Amino acid sequence: MVVRDTARYADFRLTCRDFGIPVALAWEEELAEAPLVRLLESAIAARLDQGSRQSVLNLAKSPLVANILQDPDELERAAADVFIRSWRDWPKIWDRVAGDEPAATELRKGFIRLRRLVGSLPKQGSCGQMARALKDFIASLDIPALLAGGYRCQSLPPHRLKAGLLAYEAVVGTEGILDSIEQEVAVFGDPDQMIFTLRKYLELFRKAVAAAKPLNLERPPDGGVQVVSPARVRGTAFGAVFILGLTDGEFPLPARENWLYDDRDRAAFNELGLDLPTAVSRRREEDLYFAVAAALADDLLVISCREDAETMPSPYVDEVMRLFAKGAVETEKYNVNQLFPEDYDAVYSAKELTGRALLDAFDSRSADRSSPAVGYALEHLVDGDFARRLAAEAERGCAADSPYNGMVGGDRGGGKNEFSITALEDYALCPFAYFAKRFLGLDEWAEKEEEAGLDVIGTIYHEALAIFLRSRAGEILRPERLEDYARELRAAVAAIFDRLIAEGRIVAGKLWEYQRQRLEKVLLRWLEYEISEQNSDGLAFAPHLFEWGFGLPLRPGMDPASVSSPLPLNLEGRQVNIVGKVDRIDKVGDKLVMIDYKRKSCPPFRKLTQGVDLQAALYIMAVEEFLCPPGTEVAGGGYYSVEGRKKEGGMWRGELADAIRHRAAKRDGNLSREEWTAVQDMVRRQVFRCVEGISSGRFAAKPAADCPPYCVAREICRYRRPEQYDKTVGGDSDGC
């Protein structure tokens, strides 16, 4: 049997064991997935996050703290409607704990003990000090005794006992992960003299765990069905070969390139001696693996794939079929109903009865959950928690107004009436993604990389342009001084890179020189475009203010004209305060123009009318509120693509559009005075809708547009467009 990734078929041995078929497949688990490793990561996260809601709940739900905290579900329930940011907020939940007084007291005592254990972890120290603290933390839990007790009372199967003990030895043993980190650091000097923050030690711990060998729970038998990956088998052959998982995304594996660089960038890296794979090279590698898999067969080759409304067969299936005349290859199709007898009289085992009953109960086309067979299966043939999990699964459907779909209720705003524009736009675009990011804290952990991320690139663009233009406030750039301007821009970029390296936001390495040169080229092209814009016919707007903030503390780099007062928005007796920072404000005479830099693409005007682009309109309202004395007005505001060298989107005074170069040929967004007022009123109402939704705990998985390629909620979101609903058995949903 050939599969692209054997780890995905770890349970295959259990299926074969039911039929008495020996399978030569090692039973291994990654150390990173072990409960002990997850426990330590959760404990460190709780220490670093100062007891935030999610970090504490992740720790409390670990099965390895059962001796300390026996009812983590009650802890989560009591905290559900309480606004919790740190350890100081947790005492608010104790009067909400259900049950008798002794149980509530035990829960409180267990929580306090757990907090003290987390607090014992040092925030900085040598690797030896960190290792000793974590070992003391683990020792206080008496994990071997906990595992043995679970095994004796038959709540822990033998293989989980073995996995737990192996993970324990791999982490705290004499040659375990904690000791190995100190040994690795010793290569660079005296480890006792090298001080690390707890966050940095967590990075070292994760890297050591990722490099550790898998936990070997069971060695494969000598005979039986061989389960192999084409990436690890060469120079052998079998009489019969079954290639499973020929589904697009499984075989071939999807290309997971570094999204910072396209193939043109990678070609430049190759010239620097850095061999980065491209989409073409990755696909060729997958083609080779399939050819290897097919060549293993001497007599019989069987390929298997899955196809439904959301899953496509692998392109290799069509390639094989094209090699033969039509009808020459025997094909068979099965659906899940064919796995179990349709007639209950033909059922011969408890497993078949369970499968048939569950299909009849939960197939959307023929659901009947009241039959005796279904009742018997749910009551006697499945584990006690199965019915609860099925009910929870049903609640996750998009039509259900349940917490699984973000309808959590309660006061989730914590009485807050001040919001950033980014937060409001996040909610307007997808309430559930807002909830996952800002309440569940699902932003992925990321370490510093040698190359600059998009946030760093944006920082460099913003700072370089602000530094360059601030020295020429009120001045029109002249074409004959292009070389002087270019030197100043290069110097600004170099100084910013040096500062970011010193601050640890980027790490100097082989890509540094390439990155700097690339960003310089982008900014020099921007400079040429900016000069042509400033010297065009019509209104000659000159740079006036830079990084102008409202409602924010005055920080280095912000314009001295920034104001500490937020923008007040009022509607029907309610008020919401908005804070933000405008990248640039230009001026000519008594006219002001608001500009927000974008790296590449700019939101079009239709995004504003749809209520998902609020930035330009709210910035304009802030400028009108604080920078427009009588006789001064805002001519408009929009977006400026630094890499695309274009100005798009936003809203503009229609009577002035012909005198503004980039607006003269456009219609969308050029507004009459009545339309200007109407759009601002629409934006104001959209802001209050967002605030009301946040405050009342309504975070439905209903995005205003197509889901982006990346979303922090992609693993838990069950959103799919209505036309994508799959009525077949086993249909699943598209995540974010």
What does this structure look like?
Among the domains are: 6-26 and 220-322, Rossmann fold; 31-215; 336-395, no CATH class. The strands form 5 sheets. Strands 9, 10, 11, 12, 13, 14, 15 and 16 form an 8-stranded mixed beta sheet that branches. Strands 1-6 form a two-stranded parallel sheet. A two-stranded antiparallel ribbon has the order 2-5. The longest helix is centred in the C-terminal third of the chain and has 23 residues, at 512-534. The protein is globular and about 85 Å long. It starts with 11 loop residues before the first helix and ends in a 41-residue tail after the last helix. The protein is of the alpha/beta class and 736 residues long. The chain contains 24 helices and 16 strands. It has helices spanning 12-18, 35-48, 53-60, 72-79, 101-119, 127-141, 143-152, 158-172, 177-185, 198-211, 263-271, 279-295, 315-322, 350-362, 372-381, 386-395, 421-429, 431-438, 454-470, 482-503, 512-534, 605-609, 615-627, 673-695, and strands spanning 23-24, 27-29, 124-125, 196-197, 215-218, 225-226, 238-243, 297-303, 418-420, 542-550, 567-571, 574-588, 591-598, 633-641, 646-653, 670-671. The model is unreliable at 444-454 and 722-736 (pLDDT under 50). Helix 2 (35-48) runs antiparallel to helix 3 (53-60) and helix 20 crosses helix 21.
